[in-house]
Amino acid sequence: MSSIQVSKVLNNNVIIADHPKYREVVVIGKGIGFNRKSGDDLALTIAEKMFILTNQQEQEQYKQLIPQIAENLIEVVNEGILYIMEHSKVPLNEHIQIALTDHISFAIKRSEQGIAIHYPFLFETKEMYPDEYRMAEYVVDLIRKRFDVDLEDDEVGFVALHIHSALTDQHITEVKQHSQLVADLVQVVEESMEYTIPRDSLDYSRLLTHLRFAIERVRSGHIDQDVGSLDKLLYQEYPELYSLAWKMTKIMEQRLRMPVSPSEVSYLTVHLQRADEKRNAQIR
């Protein structure tokens, strides 16, 4: 069987169908329900032009969402998701259909009502997830053009988080918590050093990137217990920065509720030393 059979047409862009492998599925695609009726067969070869929800819970959530969403928005969001699929290296968690459709629908309503919601970690998100951010820019620009709506750049940050969540199979709440953690760690650094790291500097970008991958290493359970000569040297040469790095790892352990490798202290100390050099250069 190389086709799906239409069970019910929900609208021009969404149908319920019988799939040869997944049984009942929700299929989303531009015009996929147009002039279709129950019992019609659709070739699976058009799969690249559609998105299939196979998880039953996701299907039910999407069915509940459809009556609340303009049909042309479903079409445009699906176009954006297809763009993300084409430009990402790993499969997307299908929950993005629900999360992104719901979020963008609400964002449009808020914009029309003149209600703006600020995203405080926009710069951090752009630095930590550059690929997701670029894809989010495309999606938000697509929505702006198709609906003639003035969405703020903050929405790019929100959409980037949804994309990262779908690419990594992390819940959006967890992704937000990690962005908050990175921002809080940077604040700890700047308060301790009494120095604001320039947001457009390479040192800031490197620090954010390191913190992102440090969090991912912790989440993966990677523990390196070896404390070598470099650690001892850094402790002797930069005791205050080493102490600050140790404090940061303890914050990470507390917030992530997972152990952090001792070697992370040394890695962080190196990044802090770079920032400290720039701070001292400005003071002179």
Automatic annotation (TrEMBL):
Keywords: Repeat
Domain PRD: 68-173, 174-282
Pfam family membership, one: CAT_RBD
Molecular function in Gene Ontology: RNA binding
GO biological processes: positive regulation of DNA-templated transcription
Family: Belongs to the transcriptional antiterminator BglG family. GlcT subfamily.
Name recorded for this polypeptide: PtsGHI operon antiterminator
